[in-house]
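In the previous chapter we treated chains in isolation. Here, by contrast, the input contains two separate entities that must be folded as one system, with a combined length of 278 residues.
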Amino acid sequence: MSDIGVEDWLKAALDSAVELGSTALGFDQSEQTGQSQSLPVGLGSYVPMLAPGVSMHIGLVANHDGCVDLARALLGMGPDEATSEDDITDAIGEIANMLGGGVKNRLVAREPKLQLGLPIFIDGKIQAGAHAETAVGNVSLGTIPVTVLVIRGHRPNP
Amino acid sequence: MRILIVDDSKAMRMIVKRTLRQAGYGDHVIEEAEDGKEAYDAIQKSPPDLLLTDWNMPNMSGIELLETLKKTGPAVKAGFVTTEGTPEMRKRASDAGAIFLITKPFTPENFKEALDPVFG
């Protein structure tokens, strides 16, 4: 079992999200805005991260308008440019991919065999299993409220 | 010159194209593939001058693509554009023949730094 606690995973994810706000998304200001106790409901993308004894999902969730704005920011589109649902799904998935990459870069020294999977996009409420641990935090990316969450399942060492 | 961009994300392919233009490479012919398998088949028919590939993709990953090309040919100048930037991944990329590895998120300056030596 990894010695990285779920709060450390969340910290890495929140730091990575804020960094993405200014780099990939080009916002002047992004910041952490607190933690939550409950899992969010909304549109989001989740990227799996695996290593021996480690089974994580890192998620990024926003409401529909927030996802549209995030997609436009990533794609360099103006506020009045039309975005398709496919564009939004793709863009949010790519943001989650970069979020996962940032988490990996921050934690790989403690978990050298960490591997990143492919993101999935979900519209709805996530339910963690009875044996899963979760941690949820909030950020503002520019003016867009976004929830960042980590879900740790229990994976036996091979 | 022909540049083949390989990424399963259409959004990211668009961002890479835009960044190539911003870095001064807008005059080159840009082609796209959605995954390593599609790229491999395209390269067999007509090798590009430069391959820019993501790492994690369905069907065939970017690293699998380069490792396969190393065995079968043809020889293609290649680099990664990926979130995977750890020292272990950089070494694996280099061992597979990658000339550079640009990490996401990136800037036009990152592209110029990596590509200027390739294009001379």
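The mean pLDDT of chain A is 92. Chain A is about 35% helix and 35% strand. Compare these points with the single-chain example from earlier in the chapter.
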